[in-house]
Design brief:
The protein is α+β, with helices and mostly antiparallel strands. It folds into 2 domains: about 130 residues, Urate Oxidase; about 100 residues, Urate Oxidase, CATH 3.10.270.10. It is built from 4 helices and 8 strands; from the N terminus they run E-E-H-H-E-E-E-E-H-H-E-E. An 8-stranded antiparallel beta sheet has the order 1-2-3-4-5-6-7-8, with helices on one face. A hairpin with a 5-residue loop joins strand 3 and strand 4. Helix 1 runs antiparallel to helix 2 and helix 3 packs across helix 4. The N terminus is likely disordered.
């Protein structure tokens, strides 16, 4: 049987993106406390298609993914991209995964709770490689007067960071930098928490990320719900 997908195509039309998306797949992450953390990711895989080929079998993407079953992490990301580019004869390969990451926290009461963080990694390989790690850290504060809970005011929002790095960086360390910065800002403005504006949070987190070893590029995007609208600020290096 002829491999129709790999026959020469004389139409000379390049397809910029062809692939598969929304694959639910188990992955293993490096965990600073537990060494490894098993979670489930939503995976997108795609490549460009040079005009000399009619197409590619979609099953080949999943075959490549299965070659790394149980070993998909930051370290294997580059290897998957290399195999995609080679096996699919593509000029560029792209891989994107979205996954929850869980961190155990100690409460002031001595109890423990597990916090979920939404994360994603995006990688591409053409002439050079590129990898971007994104983490979403929630902001949740509550300020109650001495008169009672009915006078509580609650603020909520998120700080989303994206980083490119020279070498491996723990996800937990990035989360800790953001959360400790937010905590310090709110404690310094304990009398009037309205001073904790999105631009203040954004600037302080950016300063801390700039001081971290291994980060070569970053972006910080802060959003907060304020009086019925969303305030936001974006900073990048």
């Amino acid at each position: 049987m002829k491999d129709i997908q790999n026959l020469a195509d004389h139409r000379k039309i390049n397809i910029q993106k062809v692939g598969v998306k929304n694959i639910s797949y188990p992955i293993v992450l490096q965990d600073k406390a537990q060494l490894k953390q098993h979670t489930v990711a939503s995976v997108n895989m795609y490549c460009n298609l040079p005009h000399q080929f009619k197409g590619t079998h979609m099953s080949r993407f999943v075959e490549i993914l299965n070659d790394f079953h149980g070993h998909i992490d930051m370290n294997s990301f580059q290897l998957i991209l290399e195999k995609m580019k080679l096996k699919l004869e593509a000029e560029a390969a792209h891989l994107s995964i979205e996954f929850p990451f869980f961190v155990e926290k100690n409460m002031n009461s001595g109890a423990k709770r597990v916090v979920r963080y939404e994360c994603s990694m995006h990688g591409s390989l053409e002439e050079t490689k590129d990898m971007l790690l994104n983490i979403e850290i929630p902001i949740s504060t509550q300020d109650c007067s001495e008169s009672g809970a009915l006078l509580c005011t609650t603020e909520s929002g998120t700080v989303k960071i994206g980083v490119r790095f020279h070498h491996f960086i723990w996800i937990e360390d990035l989360i800790m930098v953001v959360e400790s910065t937010i905590e310090q800002i709110y404690s310094n403005n304990s009398i009037d928490k309205r001073c904790c504006s999105v631009d203040t949070i954004n600037s302080e987190v950016a300063v801390r990320l700039k001081q971290m070893d291994g980060i070569r590029w970053f972006q910080v995007a802060t959003e907060k719900e304020v009086n019925g609208y969303t305030a936001f600020a974006i900073t990048h290096m």
